[in-house]
Amino acid sequence: MLSRLRLSLRCFTHSLRCHSASSIPPAHTTICSSETESREPANRKLEPDVFRGSGIAAGAWKEWFRSTETCQLNITRGFAGAARSGIEGRNTPGIRFQGNIIHDLPTLLAKAEARARAWHPSDIHAAIDISIKLPCQGADGVKLLHRVLAVLSAAYLPHVPNLAQPHLCTIPLWACAKADYWDRQLVTALLGRLAWDGGRLLVQASGKNHANLWWAMSKAPNDFVEEADGLLHASAIFVRNMSTQQLNSQDCSNILLACARLQRRHDPLLQQLAACLVQQRPSAKCQDLANSLYALAVLGCTGGEYATAVQQLCSEVHQRLLGPSARTFVPQNLSNILWALERLRPDGREELVQALAAECQRRSFAGFNAQDISNAAWALAKMGCGEASAPSGRQQQDWFKAAAIAASAPGTMSGANSQDWSNLWYALALVRHHPGPSLLQAVQAEVHLEVLHNSANSQDCANLLWALATLGLYEQRLVDVLVKRLGELLQGASKGREGLNEQGLPNSLWALAVMGPDVLSRHSGLVEGLLREVVRRWQQEGKESLTREGLVQLWQTQQELKHMSSGRGNGRQLHRILAAANGERKTPLLDAMERAVEEERVADDNAVSPIQEQLTQTLAQLQRQLASSPALVGQTASTCSKNASSNVTGSSCTTTGPTILSIQQKQPVDGTSGCVDIVLEVEGGRRMALEIYGPSNFLANHRPTKTGPTQLRDRQLERVFGAGNVVSVPYWEWGKLQGPKAREHYMARLLGLALPGQT
Fold first, then answer.
1. Nearest to 258 by CA among 186, 177, 199
2. Model's pTM, two decimal places?
3. Which of 55, 157, 548, 668 matches a 20 to 30 Å C-alpha distance to 753?
4. Residue 626, C-beta contacts closer than 8 angstroms, at least 6 positions apart
5. pLDDT value at residue 254
6. All residues at 6 or more sequence positions from 462 whose CB lies less than 8 Å from its CB, including other chains
7. Please, are residues 194 and 213 in contact by the beta-carbon 8 Å criterion?
8. What is the dihedral of CA 102, 108, 112, 114, to 10 degrees?
9. CA–CA distance, 407 with 426 (Å, rounded to integer)
10. 174-188: per-residue pLDDT in tens?
11. Mean pLDDT of 281-298
């Protein structure tokens, strides 16, 4: 027996080294997915414990099989025998089995309990397959299905050592995965049978058999995955050498999907699967195309060796979206392809993105669940769609409008988890799209607030706070829940559990600062905890603990705390945490924050827009005209600014000091990050800040409303220049002005200055 085992192992090893694709049996249609490790296994010698990844030595397998006293049966009926027994009519009201129609699980259970141990192995195998296809609803249905599988597993187990065809092992494994039923004895025996005798059954396995094995293991508990490591390793060798005649598109798609689930990337295998898919793409199902692109994205297949395959798969998707086949993509397909495009970033993806988003909008996102909507919106936003300044930006904003409306509809987000909410709001904030009151009401429903409080991780909380702040929103109930959850997570982090990442800390503090000093004061307990965590990490990790963006956010937060410190409450105490930790006058952390702000000012100083150049020229012309005209007394600049911004015409705006003494571009100002676009000094000692606000300073779908960061900047500038001395020039108003004269009159009204001849 032992010599026969050794001989078969040597033969199997040789077959792994020199197996040609033509010698492998043709594939059947597939059901599953697959993956392999990153190691190159082609020349690896498969010894008797080649499946040592299973944790069970070959001798243990040998002893188990010896303990079974059944004679070697050559079970050849397989599905053919099952068909005679009656696996028929999957789409009919019932399934024929042993001459009877089985309509439900109770009927199958009764038959199995009565006689399963006396059935032929192929009948037991057929019954296992049938059990997965019968109706099963709710928790009670799952319990009943597990009872059926328990009876059938016990009946099938004695026959496993004698199974002679690979599908007799892989279909039961697939069924266990579908039912999430993992009988240790049966699963271990099935894996052992596939591994037994040097993996003889794997030599016979079709593409479908391999795919079912991989798909099952991608759903299995970790201990079974470890047991199957060597088996999957050997399976990958065979799959790599299969041709397009042996691997259909569903085989390839399911194996890729399993690789993604198992997080195993083995480029030779993945490239072979992708190449087979490309050759079969005209006949591939839409789901196969979607799943394959999604899997390649999960596995990070962005290199040049994948570029051609990815582009050809994308081209096939695009072609189908332009015709009647577009309707065959289910919502999850559309969402997954968008998500994949964001990760893969293939060249020329813009038209495909446009087609996918248009199809989502055409359907009004009907049929999309919470994850589908949030992932689609997230992907579109991350790919830069919806930017108001872009030629198609306004049209693309309608995509996000449709997503927000769909998410606001009753029931759409009923199954949403905290990440779904986080991704959706994060996407809307990235494109500066205010979703309206309905979505705000939806996320604040008791059931969703409970989900956020109980299961949101630190990234979810930080992203939601950041999104609300960016959109200029403050919803007390929602913010209270997020702050409470963050406090719990922060407390857990001190005990070694997961805490906020390097961007989550400054994001959360910055978001509360944008919402205003009152919000910082209301949640001072969390603010103190977050600040102390920042200091702790800085002392342990130094500059690696924060990005430059994070340092700027902390500096902006510190300005709000400084303002609070001048009043009552604990603002002074909070301000000193970053400013004077350990009794130092100025901490290294504060120095790093100030350097980051200075770097941002230098970068801003080098960025002068055409509008700013035009505005500077207009102000210089005003300066010359006003210097030769007498002063008139009139309204304040603040009042005139409101009139000009609301397109009030015929108003007479003058100031007591009409002479412009100086015009300075890109001026750094204490108390605010970046540079002020233009600082004017007017006769009488008055200084004014002029800010040219472009599309990014306003909500894209509600243009007069400034974003949260812009409101924060205005607030900090007013503390320096005084109320009424911060004037913004909206880009769309400036763009409407035709010629120098129109610009001069516009700025005169905006600043409260009277040109000669005005009354």
1. 177
2. 0.83
3. 668
4. 658, 659, 660, 753, 755
5. 96
6. 486, 500, 503, 504, 505, 507, 508, 511
7. yes
8. -90
9. 14
10. 999 999 999 999 999
11. 97
